[in-house]
Design goal:
Radius of gyration: 18 Å
Structural class: alpha+beta
Distance between the termini: 45 Å
CATH class of the largest domain: Alpha Beta
Strand content: 15-25%
CATH architecture of the largest domain: 2-Layer Sandwich
Largest sheet: 5 strands, antiparallel
Strand order of the largest sheet: 3-4-9-5-6
CATH topology of the largest domain: Uridine Diphospho-n-acetylenolpyruvylglucosamine Reductase, domain 3
Number of helices: 11
Number of strands: 13
Shape: globular
Oligomer: single chain
Length: 262
Amino acid sequence: MPLAGGQSLMPTLIARAIAPGAIVDLNRIQDFPDVELEPGRLRTGALVRMQQVIDHPDIAQNLPLLHQAVSHIGHRAIRNRGTLVGSLCQLDPWAEVPLVACALEASLLITGPSGPRQARFSEFAAAPNRPLLAPGELVVAADWPLWRPEHGAGFSEVARRPNDPALACAAALILLDENRHIQRVVLAIGGVCPLPIRCHQLEALLVGKSADDLRAITTDMIEADLSGHVIRDDALADAAYRRHLAPIVAARAVEQAVSRAR
């Protein structure tokens, strides 16, 4: 079992949920990419910490959605150790980083005995806590597509306390045309279902709408995207409450994105 930051792995080991024969510390490997800004994408290597995302000027300017989402994760001590790639591999249902990967359609650079390959996040996320990796494979970096500079990004989360696991969260990206109508929109919901979901049907409803006359997203508007998915029901919140929260965090994320779009 590879160890990068350990913020997901160590609690899993303590809970005896897994029992690997060996733990391999990756932190002395020099070949992982750092934060690399390229035309159309930003790459983060396997050892890029969450606090680096908050502190890095290129990410704040070019990938504001990721910057906003990571600020909701734990506390600084956790962000100083936890890695983006580690969160993507852990695939916790309430995690913010997989939600952003779902919204941005991020891809992962994977290497292993059969050589390097790339996988889209939608293909990689097989099930909660179960990334689609073959034996011996390792994720070495994540590629985050960049939107045009004038886009707006919004992130909203409801938790029992600040920095607690999200009961529901949403990520939105919006481009407006010259008449302030929604030209392109992406909306993803996390925490409500076992894996983050894209709200494709709601996105289709929002395209062409005036940003100035946009009404609140209702339960009926988001129900079509939730249908067919299992709604999480656990000790923190039941399924009915999470279903209630879904349109609320979606509306807040969309409102933020519209207000920030230029």
